[in-house]
Amino acid sequence: xxxMPLRCLSELARxxxxxAVDAMRVGLRCLMSTCPLxxxxxxxxxxxxxxxxxxxxxxxxxxxxxxxxxxxxxxxxHNYLRISLTERCNLRCQYCMPAQGVQLTPNSELLSHDExxxxxxxxxxxxxxxxxxxxxxxxxxxDIEDICLHLSGLKxxxxxxxxxxxxxxxxxxxxxxxxxxxxxxxxxxxxVPAKFEFMTRRKGHSRVMESIDASIQLGFQSVKVNCVVMRxxxxxxxxxxxxxxxxxxxxxxFIEFMPFDGNVWNVKKLVPYAEMMDKVVSANVLKV
Length: 288
Ligand SMILES: C[S@@+](CC[C@H](N)C(=O)[O-])C[C@H]1O[C@@H](n2cnc3c(N)ncnc32)[C@H](O)[C@@H]1O
Hints:
This protein has about 290 residues and is an alpha/beta fold.
C-alpha cells in the first residue's frame, strides 16, 4: 500500500492551472481531514491512496494525458484512491480509537459532497479506476448514498468500494448498491458477541453479521472480512474465521495489528503474518 503524495495535486496545478486551483484547495483540505488513525501523523498521510503497483499501462498514458502524474518514482502507476469521508465512528475499537474518541475537525474544513466528487473526478480523469470510501465510519455520513451515486457515475471508474464496520450497513445496502457501490470490506475481529463488545466498546455483533449476510444476498461482486489479529484477544479464532468461509462466500483478510498513536499497541500483542499462516496450516482447516 502506498500513500498518495501531495505532489499529485501540485502537479495537477502545474499542468491544468484552469482546473487546479480548486482542486488544490479541495485536495489540501482533503489531506487535512478525516482518518482518525492519522491524527498524529504527517500531512501526507491524511489522504491515503493505495496502489496496485502495476507498471505504467501504455494505453492509460496515451488516452489520459494526466495519468503520468500518478506514476511514482519506482515507475508504478497508482490506479487506486482511498477517500476518508469522516473521522467520526460509531465504534471505539481498542486498537484504533481511544474510548473518548478523537478531536474532530470542524465541518467547515471537511470536504463537502461536491468537493469530494470534484477531486475524485480529477483523479479518475488521470487514470484512477478504483475508489475506496473509508473513515472513520463512512456509513454514518448522511450523504453517503449521494456520494456513491455521483462517484459511480464518473466515466472510467470500475470499482467503487467501501470499508465499513457494518454496524448500520444492512439497511442501507440495497440503496448503496443501486447507487453504484460494488465492493465491500466489512471489519469484524471476533465471532464471539461478548468479545465484540469488549474489543469495540459497543454492542452490535449481530448487526455486523447481518450486514455480511445481506452483502452476500445482494450479490456484491466482492465481500471481504477484515480481521485485525491481536495476541491473547482473538488469535484463538483464526481457524474459526477460516471455517466461516465454508458457509459464506467471503474472503477473510487477517491484518497484523499496527501501532498508532493513542492505541493499545504492544509488540507482545502483534501476531506476525507467518504465525497466522502456521496456525491455519497446522490446524488443517484448509482441507476440503
Ligand atoms: C480505520 S477502519 C475505517 C473504516 C471502518 N470504520 C471500518 O471499521 O472498517 C479501516 C480498517 O483499519 C483497520 N484498523 C484500524 N486500526 C488498526 C490497527 N491498529 N492495526 C491494523 N488495522 C487496523 C480496521 O480494522 C479496519 O478494517
